[in-house]
Design a protein that fits this description.
Blueprint: E1 3-8, E2 11-15, H1 17-23, H2 25-43, E3 52-54, H3 86-92, H4 97-120, H5 131-149, E4 154-155, H6 156-170, H7 177-197, E5 198-199, H8 209-233, H9 257-260, E6 262-267, E7 276-281
Parallel strand pairs: 4-5
Antiparallel strand pairs: 1-2, 2-3, 6-7
Amino acid sequence: MGKGVGTTGLAVYLDFADAIKRDSKAMIEKKYGNLFQMYEKITGEDPYETPMRIYPAVHYTMGGLWVDYNLMSTIDGLFVLGEANFSDHGANRLGASALMQGLADGYFIIPYTIGGYLTGAEFTDVTTDHAVFRETENDARSRIDKLLAIDGKRTVDDIHKELGLIMWDYCGMARNNEGLEKARDLIRELRGEFWENITVPGSEKDLNQSLERAGRVADFLEFAELMIIDAMDRQESCGGHFNEAYQTESHEAKRDDENFCYAAAWEYTGKEKEPQVHKETLVFENVELSQRSYK
């Protein structure tokens, strides 16, 4: 592609001058013509002549949960739509496929498949008498009481922004082992700060969005560390995980199919305990694995 030639504030300029000189304008137009056309229509600037103003941002989640042709997961009655499932976006990673998959799933599939499921399924009465419900309710109340009792100096938004910056700096579009180790230490420190020094206004008796946000950020702090653990465990570059130590001579992601050709799921084993990884080997019967290239 082109090259970033500088920054002004939050803008990054993507200059295709060298790429056009090397590969010809016709070749660049063949690859990116529709995107350039949309850009010019929006900005009024010709990207063949003027560097494009690009803002780097976090990309879509790249698929995940298995679903059948009705979009139902392995849990009976749990349907998964759009990029959260594996079927199109997560499997192929084509440009704009996340949006298209969301539209296709929402408009053309789920209105019919979920209706068929609801019509044919038999449901038992759901009550709150189960011991697991009472245990979960007690855990939730205990956590709410703990959050409201901290009475510290930092806002939840402040902690959230700091967590986002850590992830952006060390577990973003490119990461390395040293940065991931540092990020894990920083997240642990920040989690300790969260549980000792945040302030959550209001009470649990009313609709309290500050309390709701605090609960979500508490979860984010746990999930962020798990993302770091998973990134450190996978010593290769694959998909959205680009470890700087594993790249080809042309700076493409370099997979290690011999050791990492599997899907991983991490199991929570308890507070302050290391999670346990479960691996499912990926078997390709009709497709030959090959190195990805944007050339």
